[in-house]
Amino acid sequence: MELHTDDIRLDCAALHLARDAYADINIPHYLRILDGLAEEIACRRPGLSATLRFRAMRDVLVRSFELRGDTGDYGNPENAYLNRVLDRRLGVPITLSAIWIEVGRRLKWPVSGIALPGHFLVRFDDRERFVLADPFAEGQTLSADDCKRIVEDHFDEPVRFTPKMLNAVDTRTILARLLKNLRRIYLARGDWPRLARVLRRLVAVEPLAGQHLQDLACAYARCGDVRGAYSCLRAYLRRIPNARDGDIVQWNLNQLEAALLARN
């Protein structure tokens, strides 16, 4: 049974994803760190204003806890695992934002994730305004024009910025983006076993995205797991029976089936 998005806790889910790389992870320990950060912020009694709440959180997370972006080794896989980000106090936009969001949830504050193309931010809301902040840049505040420049500068070809890009995203979207960061890292390194683990998670988080099954089949094949690759392609054709690339996938499936038969 698939868990409803509203029932997914970002901190717990991200820490469970880290089990793939850190089997002995002490999840309650990291949850207590987040609890402690929220308690320290609450003691400041910032009130209801988005601006004052943002400043209180920035003071604790950035100035006291010294949470910051890893500008020296951005592609380090440790930056994508929540436990190691809390240990090292270094991370990338998505994991740093997850900490801000989860601390906000503990405080019952409306702190949301903003999935700009190429850069992840957080948003604080009150009844009259919202504040956009960049956890990777030590909590720097941003205007809509700043966000527009981020989007336009990130891509070689022009990408049109729209106000909808500043809308909050849900937990499943955040987890998928975190996993896609890891996918990119392990693909670049040719680390097929770790890539396969990440892709299995992506299939679970985004079950309607058939491309994940094809990518997982490729990773399994690279690992020498012909049966695993075969199962993924069969699942892909069942899930998307009228896929445009169905003939190519069926040809690959036949090749894998022949390889399996040759082993028997």
Descriptive report:
By secondary structure, the protein is an alpha+beta fold. β4 and β5 form a beta hairpin. α2 crosses α3, α9 runs antiparallel to α10 (226-239) and α10 runs antiparallel to α11 (246-263). The protein is built from eleven helices and six strands. The protein is elongated. The protein has helices at residues 10-17, 27-42, 50-64, 82-88, 93-106, 144-154, 171-189, 192-205, 210-223, 226-239, 246-263, and strands at residues 68-69, 90-91, 111-116, 119-125, 130-134, 140-142. The strands form two sheets. The protein has a four-stranded antiparallel beta sheet with strand order 3-4-5-6, sandwiched between helices. The protein has a two-stranded parallel sheet with strand order 1-2. It folds into two domains: 5-166, Roll (C8orf32 fold), CATH 3.10.620; 208-263, no CATH class. The two termini are 35 Å apart.
What are the salient characteristics of this protein?
single chain, 264 residues, alpha+beta, C8orf32 fold, four-stranded antiparallel beta sheet, two-stranded parallel sheet
- CATH-derived topology of the largest domain: C8orf32 fold
Looking at the overall shape, the CATH architecture of the largest domain is Roll
Mean pLDDT rating = 91
Beta-strand proportion: 5-15%
Tell me the count of domains: 2
Q: Would you list the SSEs in sequence order as H and E?
A: HHHEHEHEEEEHHHHHH
Total of DSSP H or I helical runs spanning 4+ residues: 11
Biggest pleated-sheet summary: 4 strands, antiparallel
Whole-angstrom Rg: 21 Å
Helix content: 55-70%
Task: Name the structural class.
Answer: alpha+beta
- CATH first level of the largest domain: which class? Alpha Beta
Cα-to-Cα separation, first versus last residue: 35 Å
Give the neighbour order of strands across the main sheet.
Answer: 3-4-5-6
* Number of extended strands: 6
Low-confidence stretches: none
What is the overall silhouette? elongated
